[in-house]
Write a structure and sequence with these properties.
- InterPro entries: AB_hydrolase_fold, TEII, Thioesterase.
- The protein has helices at residues 18-21, 55-58, 84-97, 111-125, 155-164, 172-194, 221-225, 252-267, 277-280; strands spanning 36-41, 62-66, 104-109, 134-137, 208-213, 235-240.
- The two termini are 23 Å apart.
- It has a single domain (18-280), classed as Alpha/Beta hydrolase fold, catalytic domain (Rossmann fold, 3-Layer(aba) Sandwich).
- Strand 1 (36-41), helix 2 and strand 2 (62-66) form a beta-alpha-beta unit.
- It has a 6-stranded parallel beta sheet, with helices on both faces.
- It is of the alpha/beta class and 292 residues long.
Length: 292
Amino acid sequence: MPITERPPGPATAPRPPAVGWFPGLTPASGAHAAPLRLICFPYAGGTPSVYRGWDAPLGAGVQVVPVLLPGRGLRMRERPYSAMGPLVRDIAEALVQGELAHDYALFGHSMGALLAYEVACELRDRGHSAPRHLFVSGSRAPHLYGDRDDRTLSDADLRQLVAALGGLGDDHTIGSAYLDRRLPVLRADLTVCEEYRWVPRAPLDCPMTAFSATRDPIAPRPSVEAWRSYTSGSLLHHHLEGDHFFLSGLSRPSLLREIRSELARLTDEPGRPAPDAPDRLPTAKREPSWIC
């Protein structure tokens, strides 16, 4: 099978202002809309839609702010990044410009966990406030990256890999058709992951929570536990039922309950769900997801 050409190098065109990175964020819903903002980073090929419906389960004291990366959604015409450094610097700058680099927590799944960690380090290097909490999900610890080369797979083999990881949802026909349109963005994101090399530095001083899943070959339990050395604070590790995309599956309500419990410590809100919270939890319907 022919190998699809590698994506181009890092994008150098000017990036949009903060609002372009955080869809739906307006001055009225921005820096002071809630006591705490949860900045959410996507997995490779992912979009902010995976975090749709998170606000209600996490409580009124938390504002969910998904990050929109180039090459998808309203930024479809922008070239996706293919290197970690420029991407992290531009996200950090957007957070500062948007007055979001204070009273915030970070969540990332798979590639998003790497982004969340690197953005936290970048903001620390710039002298800004540390995140109140860092949630890493479905991701090996940073020093364990660099052993995969999925970006060089043929289109057919890449589709097969995504399906095997549970990323096409329940209807593989719909999921595969949608994935075909996302392959260039997915390959660029995979390049970010696979060419990433951790630079040794002091651990973060914020508490962390790590999530792994029972059937995830990308981030097995021991490699997620290895995040413990990346914080001088506490680390809680929750091992949930599911595959690599457990955040969109049956374990999603459990994931959200654990996140709410931790964030409640920061917002003085009750950690238990409100009486009607179970009905407001996102459903477990599996929509197409991606990888990394």
